[in-house]
Design brief:
binds flavin mononucleotide; 8-stranded parallel beta barrel; globular; 445 residues; alpha/beta
């Protein structure tokens, strides 16, 4: 079926950008990862381009590890701003763009999360979104009085109940509950107030939430996590899903699978928007784009490159970076991923330096280097072939990455009638084309 809807676009900001050498680029300010003005500049650029939302990933620890030794102090992944605090500061400085932050269900309590996002929704006039994650990093456990990370199943058990409690709390007050009638002295209508009284294996939460129904009815729920329980959580609750597919066929199969699951939860395909991550490197010409990429690639510190390879191949610091790759047996790991990577690298005659440049330069995200039309071609194909409903744009370095996308790609998408020229609605939910949220108690009559 030919698509008539428009792409949804998010701007994902991670410190100075997704390229490992972003902080060393001559045109970035190395301290921008904690500088409010830098975030404001980028978010305003995204709002001028009419992006749906800005998205902040997060973790509750320094998650990068010092392997090989001496690499961590060369990484900018050590400090960052707390995302909800940052979004609350950005809210009054912006007007239309959605504000989405990540909070882990493993290392938070549901009441805290429900309250914070409800407040952000009030402050921003209906632009808040919660990216629900279960946390991938063992390091976070060590900051929360635990010696070990919860295992995958336990994390998702907790996540399911966590989201139930949060959504329950968000329905504490029906619309119109607060009459605030100065004449009669009645502040709220008690019939429209609901105590949750949740008692489950992980949480006991009485409620109600200390926040009235929010401008969006409730904040937008985003989910990121691709396993079977992750997909089920998304199908049951998410309005939006962030994915990380590289290959068109895999993205199409994920898209079809997730949309198929919705019916079992009484939902329809349009109730969830799927946005894979995408890293554009754009220039006025292909050569200019390639030069921009090469500038970043040349700045990858060898220790940072080796740290990037460490996760896959173990410690490679003893090998000659510019010689042909040592035999498979010389590497510490022999997982199928490691073998596949080495095989591919051998086919391309890569040295170790070229191998880490190729993995570190992509940051695990699908990347296209080219003109605005080249990038738009890729985005268009994925969108029209139902591999996604839009993209989570992950620029290589900020603010240039978003400026380039706005200058070269957005006009091209508009020419093709694939992206909006004006915001359609007032809230993030409206701009995403989602149905209004109906409070469960109003729904029951
Ligand atoms: C696109 C994407 C973004 C994610 N962002 C975060 C994040 O910001 N913080 C985090 O702790 N985990 C993040 N995760 C990981 C999830 O927390 C999840 O725990 C992890 O993917 C393992 O779950 P899974 O096996 O269901 O994929 C992200 C995952 C994906 C696919």
């Amino acid at each position: 079926v030919a698509r008539t809807d428009k792409m949804k676009l998010g701007l994902s900001i991670r410190r100075l950008g997704y390229h490992v050498a972003a902080w060393r680029h001559p045109e970035t300010r190395a301290d921008c990862g904690e500088d409010f003005e830098c975030f404001l500049t980028s978010v305003r650029a995204a709002e001028r381009a009419k992006f749906d939302m800005v998205f902040l990933a997060d973790g509750l620890a320094v998650r990068a590890v010092d392997e090989p030794r001496g690499s961590l102090c060369r990484s900018n992944e050590n400090v960052e701003l707390e995302p909800l605090t940052l979004l609350a500061a950005l809210a009054p400085m912006t007007k239309h763009i959605g504000l989405v932050a990540t909070s882990s269900t493993t290392y938070n309590e549901p009441y805290h999360v429900a309250r914070r996002y409800a407040s952000l929704d009030h402050i921003s006039g209906g632009r808040a979104g919660w990216n629900v994650v279960t946390s991938w990093s063992e390091m976070e456990a060590l900051n929360f009085s635990r010696e070990k990370h919860l295992d995958h199943n336990a994390r998702y058990d907790r996540a399911r109940e966590f989201v139930d409690v949060v959504t329950g709390l968000w329905d504490s007050w029906e619309s119109g509950a607060f009459v605030r009638d100065k004449q009669s002295g009645v502040f709220y209508d008690p019939v429209k107030s609901h105590v949750l009284n949740h008692k489950g294996p992980h949480f006991q939460v009485r409620g109600p939430l200390t926040s009235s129904r929010t401008p969006q009815g409730r904040p937008v729920i985003v989910q990121a996590g691709d396993s079977e329980p992750g997909r089920e959580l998304a199908a049951a609750h998410a309005d939006l899903v962030y994915t990380n597919d590289y290959v068109l066929a895999a993205a199409k199969s994920y898209y079809a699978d997730l949309k198929d699951r919705l019916a079992r939860h009484g939902r329809v395909a349009d109730d969830v928007k799927i946005l894979p991550g995408f890293q554009p490197i754009v220039g006025a010409t292909r050569q200019e784009a390639r030069d921009k990429f090469d500038t970043l690639q040349m700045l990858i510190d060898p220790m940072t490159g080796l740290a990037n390879l460490h996760k896959l191949l173990g410690d490679c610091s003893g090998f000659d970076l510019d010689a042909p790759l040592p035999p498979d047996a010389a590497f510490e790991t022999s997982t199928s991923n490691a073998r596949k990577t080495l095989e591919l690298a051998r086919q391309q005659n890569l040295t170790l330096r070229q191998l880490y440049q190729s993995t570190a330069g992509k940051a695990g995200i699908r990347q296209v280097i080219g003109t605005g039309a080249d990038v738009a071609d890729e985005l268009e194909q994925w969108f029209l072939e139902y591999a996604c409903d839009g993209f989570n744009i992950c620029p290589s370095h900020m603010p240039h990455g978003i400026d380039d996308f706005a200058e070269f790609v957005v006009p091209e998408l508009r020419r093709r009638n694939l992206f909006r020229t004006e915001y359609e609605g007032r809230t993030l939910r409206e701009n995403l084309g989602l149905r209004p949220h109906v409070n469960r108690y109003e729904c029951d009559g």
